[in-house]
Amino acid sequence: MAASLRLGRQGILFGLRLSHFNKCVRATTPWQEQVRRFYLSPWVLGVTPLKVQMPALSPTMEEGNIVKWLKQEGEAVAAGDALCEIETDKAVVTLESNDDGILAKILMEEGSRNVRLGTLIALMVEEGQEWKQVEIPPPDAAAPTAAPPATHAAAAPVVPPAAPPPPPPVLATSGPLRLSPAARHILDTHGLDPKLATATGPRGLITKEDALNLLKTSPAPKAEPAMATPAAQSPAPTPVASPPPPGSRPNVPPLSVPGKPGAPGTFTEIPASNVRRVIAQRLTQSKTTIPHAYASVDCDMAAVTKLRKDLAKEQIKVSVNDFIIKAAAVTLKEMPEVNVTWSGDGPQALDSIHISIAVATDKGLITPIIKDAANKGVQEISANAKALAQKARDGKLLPEEYQGGSFSISNLGMFGISGFSAVINPPQACILAVGTSRAELRLREEDQTLRTQQLMTVTLSSDGRLVDDELASRFLDKFRANLEQPQRMALA
């Protein structure tokens, strides 16, 4: 009994001493905390980044080009600061940051083209974090961009298998040869015998690919005819001189220099910009899905010309196109049934009158918008049009400055075009094509005398689903009245 009590008391004392020792060790060994912090530090785990992805800067944008980075790696960025310039399908737009932090890593360098929406273009870290230790995500987003090289790699082995020479003699014995125009041109240019080509087209047609495969697999015969002696050239006409079937044209036209291949054609491939690509898509969409109807009218520009001269005396400079924009806007206000667009469910009436004006740039046509044009004066319209046209040529238009128009105007009068028909800009219902003014001698109905008139032809392209011929005719008649009598526009 006494022994057990003695052992219990010694155990309690040992436990108290051990707990005191642990407290002293914890207090005197800060290296454990440092080790713990080291393993939890960004040096080991990396800094979780803030992702910057390629945004949709316009409704029709599917990919963009990185034009220029305005911030460098390691530079502090505040919310609203400009990160980079991106070329969209419409213009060059500045991408602004949504967060505060530091630009840690640029993943898409300047000049990167056709960057799909949602692709990572840069990484940011929060303020106070080590930006050099940013954790770069796995390249899962880069997988679509890495896929095209695989297609090239897969396409490369296809070329060698196209070199089996045995099949051509069998093909030569089976009826007359049939060549596509492209194949005939290639074989004619390089002086190749079409009977040596392997036909892979329908019904034994020798296609362009067949001619190219023959050209790749037989480079030596191209130079041999030029070096051959006249005696060696004599057997060549024998296979070509085989009588063709009646009513068929010769397979290979004769060469201008017998036995010598012509110079191959050359071309320069021009990469299409995003703007050009989207213009092509929208024009094709417009002409294939919208039933275009056309109507033209001549407008007397005498009153506008006189009014411009009077304003110029007061140092107010406005163009004819400014009066045209004002007349179109006022006419739309008087005839709201023309101020409509087409949607999937049918016509939609618009509450505002925004006039889109076509501006030619180096990258293609773009249509900046003069908003609420019916309630603006001609001088204000002129100032807005000049500012928007300059921004369009510089590629600095904002998305809201070229999206949402209700009616378009395309003026080629300054180029001497007398009249033309424009393609509707969907989902709008109409576009007005304006030609140059010309002097014509016409008979006055009032006193039956001849006088010279300055006439300008305008052509309205309208969506037949929304604006029929009768409505288009009434619109042009009212437009002509507003343009020939500018004082009416002020009253309207």
What is the topological layout?
Layout: H1 2-28, H2 31-39, H3 42-45, E1 50-53, E2 63-69, E3 76-77, E4 82-87, E5 92-96, E6 101-106, E7 115-116, E8 120-125, H4 143-155, H5 167-172, E9 178-179, H6 181-190, E10 205-206, H7 208-217, H8 220-227, H9 230-233, H10 237-240, H11 274-289, E11 292-300, H12 302-313, H13 320-334, E12 340-343, E13 346-349, E14 355-357, E15 359-361, E16 364-366, E17 369-370, H14 378-394, E18 407-411, E19 430-443, E20 450-463, H15 469-484, H16 486-491
Parallel strand pairs: 9-10, 14-18, 18-19
Antiparallel strand pairs: 1-8, 2-4, 2-7, 3-6, 4-5, 6-8, 11-20, 12-13, 14-17, 15-16, 19-20
Describe the structure.
With 492 residues, the chain is α+β, with helices and mostly antiparallel strands. Helix content is 36%, strand content 21%. A hairpin with a 2-residue loop joins strand 12 and strand 13. Helix 13 (320-334) crosses helix 14. The longest helix has 27 residues, at 2-28. The termini are far apart. The model is unreliable at 1-5, 24-29, 35-44, 141-174, 221-241 and 250-255 (pLDDT under 50).
